[in-house]
Amino acid sequence: MNVENFGASERLLVNAAYMRQGAQGRRAHELRLRALLEQGKCPEDGWDESTIELFLHELAIMDSNNFLGNCGVGEREGRVASGLVARRHYRLIHGIGRSGDISAVQPKAAGSSLLNKLTNSIVLDILKLAGVRTVTSCFVVPMATGMSLTLCFLTLRHKRPKAKYIIWPRIDQKSCFKSMITAAGLGFEPVVIENVLEGDELRTDIKAVEAKIQDLGAENVLCVHSTTSCFAPRVPERLEELAVICANYDIPHIVNNAYGVQSSKCMHLIQQGARVGRIDAFIQSLDKNFMVPVGGAVIAGFDDSFIQDISKMYPDNSVYRSSLDVLITLLSLGESGYRQLLKERKEMFSYLSSQLKKLAEVYNERLLVTPHNPISLAMTLENLDKHSDMTVTQLGSMLFTRQVSGARVVPLGASQTVNNYTFKGFMSHTNNYPCAYLNAASAIGMKKQDVDLFLKRLEKCMKNFRKEKSCGKDVPEIDNCIKDTSVGETEDYKLQS
Amino acid sequence: MNVENFGASERLLVNAAYMRQGAQGRRAHELRLRALLEQGKCPEDGWDESTIELFLHELAIMDSNNFLGNCGVGEREGRVASGLVARRHYRLIHGIGRSGDISAVQPKAAGSSLLNKLTNSIVLDILKLAGVRTVTSCFVVPMATGMSLTLCFLTLRHKRPKAKYIIWPRIDQKSCFKSMITAAGLGFEPVVIENVLEGDELRTDIKAVEAKIQDLGAENVLCVHSTTSCFAPRVPERLEELAVICANYDIPHIVNNAYGVQSSKCMHLIQQGARVGRIDAFIQSLDKNFMVPVGGAVIAGFDDSFIQDISKMYPDNSVYRSSLDVLITLLSLGESGYRQLLKERKEMFSYLSSQLKKLAEVYNERLLVTPHNPISLAMTLENLDKHSDMTVTQLGSMLFTRQVSGARVVPLGASQTVNNYTFKGFMSHTNNYPCAYLNAASAIGMKKQDVDLFLKRLEKCMKNFRKEKSCGKDVPEIDNCIKDTSVGETEDYKLQS
Amino acid sequence: MNVENFGASERLLVNAAYMRQGAQGRRAHELRLRALLEQGKCPEDGWDESTIELFLHELAIMDSNNFLGNCGVGEREGRVASGLVARRHYRLIHGIGRSGDISAVQPKAAGSSLLNKLTNSIVLDILKLAGVRTVTSCFVVPMATGMSLTLCFLTLRHKRPKAKYIIWPRIDQKSCFKSMITAAGLGFEPVVIENVLEGDELRTDIKAVEAKIQDLGAENVLCVHSTTSCFAPRVPERLEELAVICANYDIPHIVNNAYGVQSSKCMHLIQQGARVGRIDAFIQSLDKNFMVPVGGAVIAGFDDSFIQDISKMYPDNSVYRSSLDVLITLLSLGESGYRQLLKERKEMFSYLSSQLKKLAEVYNERLLVTPHNPISLAMTLENLDKHSDMTVTQLGSMLFTRQVSGARVVPLGASQTVNNYTFKGFMSHTNNYPCAYLNAASAIGMKKQDVDLFLKRLEKCMKNFRKEKSCGKDVPEIDNCIKDTSVGETEDYKLQS
Amino acid sequence: MNVENFGASERLLVNAAYMRQGAQGRRAHELRLRALLEQGKCPEDGWDESTIELFLHELAIMDSNNFLGNCGVGEREGRVASGLVARRHYRLIHGIGRSGDISAVQPKAAGSSLLNKLTNSIVLDILKLAGVRTVTSCFVVPMATGMSLTLCFLTLRHKRPKAKYIIWPRIDQKSCFKSMITAAGLGFEPVVIENVLEGDELRTDIKAVEAKIQDLGAENVLCVHSTTSCFAPRVPERLEELAVICANYDIPHIVNNAYGVQSSKCMHLIQQGARVGRIDAFIQSLDKNFMVPVGGAVIAGFDDSFIQDISKMYPDNSVYRSSLDVLITLLSLGESGYRQLLKERKEMFSYLSSQLKKLAEVYNERLLVTPHNPISLAMTLENLDKHSDMTVTQLGSMLFTRQVSGARVVPLGASQTVNNYTFKGFMSHTNNYPCAYLNAASAIGMKKQDVDLFLKRLEKCMKNFRKEKSCGKDVPEIDNCIKDTSVGETEDYKLQS
Lengths: 497, 497, 497, 497
Description:
The structure is a homotetramer.
Chain A: H1 3-13, H2 16-39, H3 49-60, E1 71-72, H4 83-88, H5 110-129, E2 137-141, H6 145-159, E3 165-169, H7 174-181, E4 189-193, E5 196-198, E6 201-203, H8 206-216, E7 221-227, H9 239-249, E8 253-256, H10 264-276, E9 281-285, H11 286-290, E10 297-301, H12 304-313, H13 320-362, E11 376-380, H14 389-401, E12 404-405, E13 408-410, E14 415-418, E15 421-424, E16 437-441, H15 448-471, H16 477-481, H17 487-494
Parallel strand pairs in A: 3-4, 3-7, 7-8, 8-9
Antiparallel strand pairs in A: 2-10, 5-6, 9-10, 11-16, 13-16, 14-15
């Protein structure tokens, strides 16, 4: 309501004092909004739902599809057939950007465009807060990390048309590999660098990386593609050293920081890498770091023009979809809320770690010592069944049917071929890890209740196994639970990354 | 509520007859749902919002993030920080598919996976209803048509590793060209076939296509990339003849059917092409054909295994986002509702056509004769100002500030360079179209009120111009409306496809 | 967003022209709102949901419970425990009015108070549109008509402390009678005036009313309590003549116009009554006339101070609940939408009437001739079963189990005692109506589909009866449908007014 | 989804194991619901929004207005014109009960009726939890406490037709008095018993009550109307002693327990009163005790048939409106959540008490010693301005404009006439309280932040006054804030109970 409308309201209510009190209430909302628009930063304290919805309503009525007097004679007019759909998108129906240029402003959608600018600005603010203080530019894309990495590689190709090798310290996640392979027929060639075992940890083989670069010729290397967040016992890359090598050899460096925003260690590695060496872009998943639905990523970097080049590669204009969720979420959390989530995650990591350690000892297993991995933990499964990996797999099924989600069992000696490339010891990031193990992670949003339930159910399963083994029996309940546990089926849940 | 719960309710209500009446009411909903699940077809009559929401609620509680007893110890657990976000996605937070394999079922999300399967099944049903009766397979992707086309080309590359040419009858839309260019540095080479002028229409130069194939060698051609829906005076491709050539030379054929589902003519062309010749896949935008928010497409074809190959190229799992909107929309419309929309669109096309013709005659212009284009119309702007294209551009600005969206003015002789390729006469699909013109389209969901408002405002603008010209004056109001109408600014709205 | 915020937005978007377009879009919403606030009338054209919700949001942030800086130290602070509840009330949690004075403004809730004022103003406008052009004052209460009538009688009591008789032309609806009886132990005494049979119609016995007034002494009569909308074959009161009598004898006159707003005839009667005689207040149900949920009424009249006196009798402050629904509804319909509903209702009445007539004739029954009743119709059930009312009752049950709601069968000779007063021939408004019959009504919002389904199902039931009778059998299916059709049960559905 | 639908889903998903996992997820929801329906008790742990909404959806489809095949031919068919309205009521449009009998089941609305039964059952459970362990019956009404009290008095009148006196220990709240006065013209006569001052507390004058009963004759007394929750320095009635007197003299006893459910002390008084003496019904506000919007009450008692008699006096059927909010709220809180709220309220009371005490001492005021009042506190305003009550009033205005809501200043010697009855010292519950004071309360849902903000703002105001006084100036800012602070205006905020 503007000034005239307040005037009209006063006359209707016949009580100026109360109306003025109301107007003052409204003013406070306007001021909040103004601070947001002027600073483009995530507010310190989260907004209530009411303020957020009002804001989204205000943005929506600035889009042409919501103009009271609009008439549309094009083929893309933001018309919506279902009221349910209109409402769930707050009537923000037009995308932002133009067909073929995501970074342009969409003339039909000032509100949606503003929303998108704000989101990128706020996310940048949060990346700084989370530890990469010198990041200068970022943008949200409605694709997961895999596709986002591909976008980066394609952009680099324009700059280094002759380079075709991507140096890639091994990380056993299909989508990471596929991000290079999707484009492989077109000329990229991933060069896998095996990790080295240090204690229990699998770490970057820096010497092998450098040797391979020299071997291939730096000018033929498109980029180094490194990883921070990963399943233990693999640990985040030796990022500083990689970044220094990239700087020395003048090779681009793309970091897959999939769920690393939630960890100050991962973010610190990126900050340090950029400070002492070279990092061109780092990519993170929206859902894993900001607790929004699956399907978005943030591409960020230290050079505005490179980040903008990447954004120009993206041919569509549906970006706002992911932006909307992340904007709502960050406004409702505020910086303080996000900081609190980071803190709780860290505490939960310690708790999970200590509890899992205790349980492991009871069953003659041990927690792998992986101090460099700040998120994921691994417990050995050496004594579960000495003679068969089947048992390890069964443990996974049992946990699944007991509604434990996200736990991952890694048997020995699995082998998998992805796009003609065969990985020995697949899932364990190395050809021959010494033992089978079980992964659990403390990710953002995890509750103490999750940990407790997990440990209770895990213990029950372990106990069952011990009992059964001592009787020389199979574990029968699996058959009742998952009748069709073919090998393929079992694979399914194991790879549920 | 299941049987036991009805029993308990009866005891509480102390009136079995009324409760039974209530149970019968519920049963009707269950039967609806059953028909949907068993047949996998769009219901004939649309569902009310209540049934749709109940169904989505039911799906959501089958996803692990909504299990009452779930505990999550992974890094991707469908956790959501904001209630607003959870609600607007009906708590369907997990994607479907697995990281790296969209066609796999997501173990954590039976409900979301079911939703996705159903959506593809219903969309297939609607594609048949709309005219492509023999289509056998399709899937929804959360990307617009441009990126979807790229996905098809990448898939073909795996099958024809040495082929690099894409035969492309010219269509002046940036995203179409970019769909090939994004990957261009990697080896694709678009081969532009200029259109021929027949009367007012710009049509496919079939002979030139065939000659170019012979010239390049069929084995070097990745595919023919043709287009159905387009701005007049260009008209849909001579699709049957193209399909026959593709069959004869054994060349894949990808059809950009962007907003063609809404036109029985476009769909008929595809059906005929597939019958007499070769079409490998046809791609259509979700928003333009199904009245949902921007950002999704359907990839469809006649060979299940090829369509599945394309789906495997897609590395992410956020598909359900687009599925959800299109599922809600189609369930709420029903087949009859969608048929009705198609019928109304056709009627509105006739109405727009006849009204625009009348208006054109009053101002000494004429409606271009483009009988092969079933959606878009063009009116000449020859007499607006004989001496300057500036005026044509101003007309565009005036319409924009008068809240006419989607109208497009095409001046003479514009030239544009897209990724190093220069198009003369850009926007007009040919180097030298005889005159400037204005486009308007009758797209699905257009109302008579849109047409009437458009014509009224257009007439007012035309009148203004005539008046101003007779006084030898500039048109002053533009300056008031858009003060910063630099050339770049003006470009903006013109290209708003 | 205010001016400063638009400025900040422009800077963020780096495109003043588009932002200005957006601001213009917003301005249109503001102007709508302003017209509403200044004129206090229902807009001619309905508002879309987006505008309505934005408006409600704006009102809500003017209530103290939504002040960002509010601190509450009272016992009633508009705190809400559940987000679901907050949202469904648009965060309008405080009532309006003060404890003990509904017409006062609630200092904690400027927004809610404004909402209430506006609603009363708009409803007044609609009452005029519907036919009572000279109505001057009205207010919405969160009680149904029965309780609202009681409120009127209590107010009159203060003015006529010695009068205890309420003259009441008989109408067989429990809540009407109860509106006087609730307070009966306290001194009111309803005086029932039996109706006279004219043709098929039951009409007001004007002479009996006047005779009774003379008999009791006008000064002892609290008021005449008359009725417009009613089930055929009773017809609306001879309201003009009653009003003249009231004027002549200086007796207050309260009209129960339950669902009469939807009929121009009922409204015309009130308008005429007020013009030529005396009407103090007329009461109408919100749900039956404005298609909102059950539980509200409008008390209206021609003398501001009397209507205000009534409002002061109402001790609570929860009014806004009913106001909110009726405000949303009328804003979304607009005057034109409401007018359209009235027109459709009239057409549907003709249709129902003609179709029911045809069906009656097929089964040797007839439609009662009740031209003065503009809403309700009655079809005789004379030949259904000559010997038993049981059959009539069974017909009712059969219709109920076939999901026909609102049809009412009236058997001969039912008798009912309400608060010690025994009505012979209860439900038929007279002691001995010549025949049993079935009622159906054409009320606002009825669709052609309702009529068609009703007639189809009714015909099926009638056919069944004829068949069964010819075999000398009972109608068995009832037993299957409602096993416990005790008399009480059967009563249930019959009295479902 | 029922069993057949799960079967169909399995076939569609081609993965029985995942689907079974989904079905198991659903089953958990069904079990929750079953426990609720079978036990009719508030669940120990609160339900999430998803479960609640699913439950409401399920109830809604059992109401005839949501039957897919329903046809309505009555005048009240639950039709709704606005989708916004339908949704905010979860499509529960029909009321419960029948016109004229709220305790009957509404045949058209099995779902709504079930909802209502459940609500009453759950609220009863919570009343027990809160301390009245032997309560046997209660029901929710969509009216505030005032109107609910009137309903009780009217019911008693039927049982004691000759009794007209209501014995009422004075409590200065308009709606309490009005609950007797609304019906006063009809024969009730409130007999005000002045309170006695004990220390700072105002307590029931038991002897005066008994004397008055003897004086009037027990048979002429309709009932004793007592109060628990109230503003300090008045304290809850000596309820046990009153109940004993009522038992001895065979006089009904109605307790106004307005916001007493939140205090174990108030509830304990009722429990004890019922144990040792007589309490017929006790009435509590929904909004003040259960944190729902204004406008509902619970009428409860120890004799089913009396409570049912009261329910039969209520002529309307809109009950579900209040039921819906309270049901949602209690399901979302669960017993544990409600218990937690009670606990926090108590803690906040101690905190407010100690902080206010400190502040009082700084300004030479003191916290009144009112140990019997568990909710409300009072701080003297003796030194604010020795010579004028104006200052006290100004303090109120200042707090109001500073967004402190619910604080109440009580000046000396105010006098007010309500319905011809003049109260000296109005607002202070006695003719001559020794000093002016300020009230603040710790009510359910209050946060520490409320207390802190309140004290900060209060301190600022106090400081201002001290400063101004020492300069001999008026407090100028008031004039800026509320220009029209006429006496009437000022009254407004003071009485904002």
